[in-house]
Amino acid sequence: SDERERFDPNEVIERALRVAAPQLRRVATIERSYGEIPLVEGARRELEQVFLNLIVNAGQALEEIGVLRVRTAVIDGDVEIAVADSGRGIAPEHLDRIFDPFFTTKPVGEGTGLGLSISHEIVRRHGGRIDVSSEPGNGTEFRVRLPIAE
After folding, report:
1. Of these four, 21, 47, 53, 61, which has the most CB atoms within 10 Å of its CB?
2. Residue 146 has pLDDT above 80, yes or no
């Protein structure tokens, strides 16, 4: 794992959006709503991988040109980073399994089912949590909560 450091999550999210830009260019309109948030402490590259995974997954969920929203705020004493899409959503019967290793609803050859599992573990190791809400046909929102750096 990376060395821990204090950093601005807004900058890390913006970097992840730049890396994902070629994949998103044809499918997503990106809406940013960055709050004034304090620094968090952790392995910057690991958390960038989490945000990149969530952003790429959101882009893949869009069947036509859709909206990908990225929001940051302070909620209940934590930094919250939300990545939402206007895509097809996740079936209710799959919501309890999406963080399980090797679980995927993607066609064979398009996903390993490890991205969300690894992201969940990285966030947990940083003292945070990751939650999801989804409604079939109306998109999905992932919320990552991370403690504020002391």
Report:
1. 47
2. yes
